[in-house]
Every structure is written in structure tokens, then in C-alpha cells.
Amino acid sequence: MTKCKLEYIWLDGYQPTQSMRSKTKIVEDFSGKVEDAEMWSFDGSSTEQAPGGASDCLLKPVFCVPDPDRLGTGFLVMCEVMNADGTPHRSNGRATIKDDDNDFWFGFEQEYTIFDPETKKPIGFPAEGFPAPQGPYYCSVGAGKAVGREIVEEHLELCLQAGLNVEGINAEVMMGQWEFQIFAKGAAQAGDEIWLARYLLDRTGEKYGMEINYHCKPVKGDWNGSGMHANFSNTTLRTCGSKEVYEAICQAFEPRITEHIDVYGADNDQRLTGLHETQSIDKFSYGISDRGASIRIPIATVEKGWKGWLEDRRPASNADPYMVASAIIATVKTANVPAGV
Predict the structure, then answer these.
(1) Which residue in 283, 264, 193, 186 sits closest to 226, CA to CA?
(2) 10, 115, 227, 269: which could form a disulfide with 79 (CB 3.0–4.6 Å)?
(3) Claim to verify: residue 141 and residue 69 sit in the same structural domain
(4) 141 in the same domain as 254
(5) Residue 131: domain span
(6) Distance between CA atoms of 173 and 320, rounded to whole angstroms?
(7) b/e sequence 91-106, b meaning 16+ C-beta within 10 Å
(8) Do 134 and 283 sit in the same domain of this protein?
(9) 22 near 42, Cβ under 8 Å?
(10) 126 and 59 part of one domain
(11) Cβ contacts of residue 85 below 8 Å, gap of 6+?
(12) Structurally, how many domains does the chain consist of?
């Protein structure tokens, strides 16, 4: 009998930003299929998800991949949190997704900052003062510019070994800030993969004694914030070949600013200021190749005859990808698409 380590991972009930929790279950000869992972439970009173007098919450496995960073045979098991009666817990963002047919595809660009817990600043920042201004750090190479690469590269390899669909990495605009990109067909799958990639990143940082900071404005002042840009498409966007259709879908977002900002991450007002490649939090705009717009129409989409995708640049790095995707789907479905398309 092979002893297998199943790491059950879930989101707690802390507000305004949830944290990941996990614990290990030892089983024999696990198949690696999520349907063979049993329901489990945990103490919800310790995670802001239940009172002490009725503290049991349930863990419902929804996605499973091999765990490449553990001795022996291990698996990472992403779970939804359920109430004791089997209904979705109020903190369960995945349960808000109504995209059952996976017609919506998502590519999330997850930015983050590696923080040194001793200086309480991004890695590479001096203990006193600041490094040179932004400019040389984006997609950089070389000492003094690209800082923390050993963590980033190790994380990338772990994600690939786990079978997560990471499509790239790069150093970002601020020193110590990096990004990985994940693509998936279906909102739930995209969210599952982002959360497991975040988990592996946190655990890798733990090994190096570094904190992974997902706050959307980790350093105040003239420094870029961190986002989780949401690239999305459905069959219409991928095939319509119509500028008018694209404009109708973009326009559907304008009256729903509040619905999106409510789930696009805590403290996003500190990031969405109209500066540092953002639109103001209370305004809406869209434009071709415009990184200062709420929604960017990629030039590749235009060059392919208006067949492609859109990028919502407003989600913060600390947002829940499940809820971001759910909000985007709901809004796109309200679009007044021209007849005959």
C-alpha cells in the first residue's frame, strides 16, 4: 500500500481578503482523481467561518493535481467550503460561478511582490530609503534589477510539474514585483489553478523565508500597484469579427462599475488612481492598446479582424479569481449585442 499525502486547501472567512488554509490527510493508494478524494471537515471557529458551538465546516474537493514539492506521493486538493448541511458557505466564491458550459475562457495575469520580513519592504529595496525609480525593472535581467528570480523560477517549475497551465512569467515594473500568467477554459478551472499556483508560491516563499505580498499597493508613492488583469473571451468574442459587437460588450460594463469593484479586491482605490497604467476607480473607459483604460482591447484582437479577447485591467492582485470571473460572465451576458451577429 502506498501512503499518499493529500493537502486539502481552502479559503477562510477573513474579510476583506481571504487567506488560504490547508491540512494534510494520509490515505492509501489514492488514484489522483478528484472524485476519489473524500469530503473532510475542519474547525470553522478558527477561520472566521463558524461559531464555536457549531464549528464544523465541510471541505468538498473540486480540483486535484500532483504535489511536486513533497517527499513521497502527494496531491494538492482544492476544496470548496460547505456548511454542515452541505450548502455552500457564504465565503465560497466558487459557488457564485454560473458558467457551466465553459464557453468563457480566462487568462489571469497574477502580479505579486516578494517581501523581506526583516525590512518589511520588497526584496531588493534598501533597509532605509528606496531603490532607483521605476524604469529598469520591468522584464529585467541582471543583479540589482531582477531580484528574487530563484523563487520565481522554482515556483514556475513546480506549477509546470503539477500540471497547472502557466503560460509565462516576467519581472514587473517595481523592484521585487513579479507576475505569472495562467489560462484555463472555464471560470472554475481558471480560479482553481490560480489559487493552487498562489498556494505553491506562498509555500516556496516560506522555504526562502520570504513573504509573498498580494496587496494591490504594497509600496505607497510613485510605485506601480499589483493587479490581476483578467483576459476573457467567449464564442462571440472569439468569432464575431465585428467592432460593433466588441463595443457593445465593453459598454455593458459601464453601468456596472460598483458590481465589479465590489469583488475586484480590497483597497483597490489605492491602486486605481488614474496613474501607473490604471483608470480611476469611479470611472470606466475602454480602448485599443490602452493600458490606462478599464478595459483594454488588445491590438492582436483588432489585427485578427476583431476576433479574440478583452482585458479587464481593474482586478487587484488580492482579488478572488472565482468572483472576478463570475462578475465578468454576468456582465457580458447583459450586453446588447447587435442582431445578426
Answers:
(1) 264
(2) 10
(3) no
(4) yes
(5) 105-334
(6) 23
(7) bbbbbbbebeeeebbb
(8) yes
(9) no
(10) no
(11) none
(12) 2
pTM, whole model, 2 decimals?
0.96
167 and 86 within one domain:
no
- Encoded amino acid at 19, one letter: S
Per-residue pLDDT of the chain (341 residues; tens, 9 = 90+): 899 999 999 999 999 999 999 999 999 999 999 999 999 999 999 999 999 999 999 999 999 999 999 999 999 999 999 999 999 999 999 999 987 779 999 999 999 999 999 999 999 999 999 999 999 999 999 999 999 999 999 999 999 999 999 999 999 999 999 999 999 999 999 999 999 999 999 999 999 999 999 999 999 999 999 999 999 999 999 999 999 999 999 999 999 999 999 999 999 999 999 998 999 999 999 999 999 999 999 999 999 999 999 999 999 999 999 999 999 999 999 999 987 66
**118 and 75 fall within a common domain:** no
Question: In the block, which residue shows the cell 467550503?
Answer: 81
Question: Is the same domain home to 279 and 144?
Answer: yes
Residue 163 and residue 84 in one domain: no
Please report how the helices 321-332 and 243-253 are oriented relative to each other, as an axis angle in degrees rounded to 10: 120
Q: Which CATH number fits the domain that encloses residue 60?
A: 3.10.20.70
